């Protein structure tokens, strides 16, 4: 009973698929930033970075298979960092 | 004799608590690097041209190679958790060994990258940087501070994983008691997670 949450064993194959996706996202972000798209290259690179971190968090760090409690805490931290960045930039943009 | 047997039966173990503690530690690390990312983005916003010129100096090839190395090592340590659950001690040790080797490869790359920069006279307090613009000094200051702090985490991660390898070898970590292996894996994924953002910010966005 106590070890119920530990019984989920992630398949090796799942990890291989996740790694392949991560590599595809990495090379895509390298490729897209070779073009001079101005602000869009920054946006594209950050979107790929976010997609990659979601994959790492959900599969490698087991958030998908663990108690929801961990995912909620993680989401809270992301929200905190994003809001601090937003508020700091609002200050610089409109001072 | 009876006393020690009794103590053994009553051994306290709280895997859920250990893992929650690790996650809370990871959150503090994310906030630490989050703060540095804010500093970086504000200075980039204030000095766009200097940051553009300075970022061109970095080698995208080395950056990409190190990204691939870290992603693969993240997969191997994740697989190590699966293999200890499947009671495969030998494979667990091999996968952890690969992770450590990849981490060392990352550090070797970092060594060549940094020593290349330093031999070109680009390091905090150097003559060449003193003659550069304020923005370039800021870029390389942040580059050395943030990738350096990240590299420190790699070294700590290698030591942590090597310690857990020893525990796996001595059967102190096994298929029904492996939370410390899970925690070392979580730490290693954190190192990977930070690099996922460091890489585009320093190497890709120019």
UniProtKB/TrEMBL annotation, chain A:
Q: Where are the transmembrane segments?
A: 12-32, 38-60, 72-94
Residues spanning the signal sequence: none
Q: Which residues form a coiled coil?
A: none
**Record-linked Pfam families:** COX4_pro
| Compartments it resides in | Cell membrane
Q: Which domain of life is it from?
A: Bacteria
Instruction: Quote the InterPro entries the UniProt record gives.
Output: Caa3_sub_IV, Cyt_c_oxidase_su4_prok
**The keyword Nucleotide-binding is annotated on this UniProt entry:** no
Membrane topology for this entry? Multi-pass membrane protein
Cellular component terms (Gene Ontology): plasma membrane
What does the UniProt keyword field contain?
Cell membrane, Membrane, Transmembrane, Transmembrane helix
Instruction: Give the protein name, as stated in the record.
Output: Cytochrome c oxidase subunit 4
Organism per entry: Ancylomarina subtilis
From TrEMBL, chain B:
Keywords noted in UniProt? Membrane, Transmembrane, Transmembrane helix
Identify a single GO molecular function assigned to this protein. cytochrome-c oxidase activity
**Name of the molecule in the record:** Cytochrome c oxidase subunit 3
Read off the PROSITE patterns from this record.
COX3
Any single Gene Ontology cellular-component annotation: plasma membrane
A single GO BP: aerobic electron transport chain
Compartment annotation: Cell membrane; Membrane
Membrane-crossing residue ranges in chain numbering: 21-40, 60-81, 93-112, 142-166, 186-205
